[in-house]
Design a protein that fits this description.
single chain; 475 residues; Rossmann fold; Beta-Lactamase; 5-stranded parallel β-sheet; 17 strands
């Protein structure tokens, strides 16, 4: 306690009263401005007791120092009669209470009350500061969070949003605060969203992946987790999961395409087997049957040498024709030219066969490829075959141009026709199994296939196959 008093006896009286009331008192008495200032600089004080008038000091000066040093402990005046006006003036100036020296019955209750109120006031300040600090931290965390944090009412209207909400949606904070969550959700997700909001009102929680509109008109996917805070508000946390959702959808789409493609390959294999079986049965079977009949005739008519000689010549001709048929069927299954003379020669041979069958003119610009991976040659040849098959089926073309180029790090093949052109939706369709097959073949050797409808008319296919580089082994 700091006692501002010029009379030591009066100071001791107040100390004795406090000790009698059970207080453990440490005090210092001052009676000048310099002494009080030194005491205020030396330590903090729990209670200030001041006389009203002293020869070298005044309560007004003491109160001014008390306020200058921002003290918050009780300041109580204990003095003689000063009049009601002076007492009111002191209270208005910041004194906590005023007591008469000749009537100290209220002294202890006043001290207890003021110390208690000071303690409560300090606690309140600490709680207020803690709350303010906590709120500031909360706002800092929320505002700097990488994901969306928002507060909305149960009608879906935004009440508060953080900076991430503006960044992810493209809207300003003011625009969002004048919007409803439901207004951002696409029609495809709106039914799910309304069902989830309705369920949240009964369960108190919401968890869903929803497709929403970005401010620029694009669609995004968000994962929403929300909890109901009160009867009218819920707190939501949102993460942009567009890339993850697109990746999942792409995987599902690819899986469906592969399933259809596998079925397509199985059907194609069976059709090819049936075609080969039919050709063997119809052409080779008939030829071999005729040879067998003629050989049997020769055996039965060996005595007639002239006619037997004619039959043998005919058998030789049929054998030669049969050999050609076998070569043709074998070449269609896998041309030997591809392995013996390379891709350019195989394409040239197949194009000639194609022209004879269809009447569609083939314009060739082919560069010979160096000896390399046989898989590249086979892949490009099969893609070329599939492309010409599509020309027959769909293009209604009169000319096809095939351009095969070799560069140091890449082989490219371009196939163009002057037909009706491929529809844009067919290019991206998962049901165009022929296109999927070409893409998958190229993908097996790290290549790409691009389909495009030409500006004027026709379709253009560009195949690019990287050539793997082999680093020399270090010694």
């Amino acid at each position: 306690m700091l006692v501002i008093e010029d009379n030591p006896v009066d100071a001791e009286l107040t100390i004795r009263l406090l000790k009698t009331a059970g207080y453990d008192v440490t005090y210092k008495r001052v009676e000048t401005k310099a002494e009080m200032e030194k005491a205020l600089q030396s330590r903090s004080w729990d209670l200030f007791l001041s006389d009203y008038s002293m020869p070298h000091f005044s309560v007004q000066t003491a109160l001014g120092l008390y306020q200058f040093y921002k003290c918050d402990s009780p300041f109580i005046v204990v003095s003689g009669a000063i009049g009601e006006d002076k007492a009111v003036e002191l209270i208005n100036a910041g004194v906590n209470d005023y007591l008469m020296k000749d009537n100290m019955t209220r002294f202890i209750p006043v001290v207890e009350r003021e110390l208690r109120e000071t303690r409560n006031h300090r606690n309140l300040l600490n709680v207020t500061y803690a709350l303010a600090s906590s709120e500031e931290k909360y706002r800092s965390y929320v505002e700097n969070a990488p994901d969306v944090v928002f507060l909305a009412d149960l009608s879906g209207n935004f009440v508060e949003v953080n900076e991430a909400a503006c960044r992810i949606t493209g809207y300003t904070r003011d625009e969002l605060l004048n919007m409803s969550v439901l207004h951002m959700i696409t029609e495809e997700s709106l039914v799910v969203a309304k069902e989830m909001f309705s369920r949240m009102k009964s369960t108190g929680t919401l968890n869903a992946d929803l497709e929403v509109w970005h401010q620029n008109g694009s669609k995004r996917w968000i994962a929403v987790d929300a909890i109901q805070l009160s009867r009218s508000l819920f707190l939501g946390f949102t993460k942009d999961v567009t890339e993850r959702k697109n990746a999942i959808n792409e995987v599902l789409k690819t899986r469906e395409e592969l399933q259809r493609f596998n079925q397509y390959l199985m059907d194609a294999r069976e059709n090819e087997r049936a075609s080969v079986a039919m050709e063997i049965h119809d052409e080779l079977g008939q030829a071999l049957t005729a040879i067998k009949i003629d050989l049997k005739w020769v055996m039965e008519n060996l005595s007639d040498s002239a006619k037997s000689f004619q039959k043998i010549n005919r058998i030789i001709e049929m054998v030669n024709e049969t050999i050609k048929k076998v070569q043709r069927i074998s070449a269609e299954l896998r041309p030997g030219l591809l392995d013996d003379l390379g891709l350019a020669t195989a394409i040239e041979w197949y194009s000639g066969e194609f022209e004879q069958r269809t009447g569609i003119n083939c314009i060739l610009m082919l560069e010979e490829l160096p000896d390399g991976d046989g898989r590249i040659n086979l892949t490009l040849f099969r893609i070329f075959q599939e492309a010409l098959t599509n020309v027959i089926r769909h293009a209604q073309a009169h000319h096809v141009k095939i351009n095969l180029k070799y560069r140091e790090n890449e082989i490219s093949m371009t196939i163009e026709d002057d037909g009706v052109g491929i529809p844009a939706d067919k290019i991206s369709s998962g049901k165009s199994l022929g296109l999927i097959g070409m893409r998958e073949r190229a993908k097996q050797i790290n290549g790409t296939v691009v389909f495009m409808k030409k500006y004027t008319h026709g379709t253009k296919i560009v195949i690019r196959i990287p050539i793997p580089t082999h680093e020399p082994e270090s010694l």
